[in-house]
Amino acid sequence: MPEIWLRPNRRVLLLAAIPVLILGVLGWLQMRSDASPLPTWLGTATLIGAGVLLIGLIRQIIQPRIAYREGSVLFYLKSGGPIAVPLDVVEAFFQGESLAHLPGEARHHAKSVNLIARLSQRETDWHQRDVKKALGQWTEGYVTVRGPWCEPIDTEVIRRLNRRLTEVKREAQAQSAGSGN
Question: What is the pLDDT of residues 152-170, one digit of tens each?
Fold first, then answer.
């Protein structure tokens, strides 16, 4: 089980679940209604579709944005599994700002506070990765986690991440020094 370092923005995901739940209830009511001119299969299909969407949202709610497991920092910025970066490649976390990449007209003006992970410049194999644009960006050795899709980013979060990164690096060094004797 990975150690969670940065959580998703649960408020946004829970807000997205409201219309899905309403859709599911409408599907269930349609299934149960004898008086409705719409067929029962339409209600069943709606209920199943809402269930699939809800499962996807629940998965997003429990899946972290950044985690740590067995010598790797895990970045969850795409569909499927995380991108596992060796611990020694990740150098630091800091705060940045960019366009929020929100849908609609707001995307042209809204700014967001982002988390940026700096990767080792010597490790060029890790400088580029394809990630979901809404969740972040991975280019030139910098991993950007977009603020709207993770827990609120402030100086305390940055300090906590850098402190934990330093701790696990020291633990890894101590283990390798201990096993080398």
Answer: 999 999 999 999 999 999 9
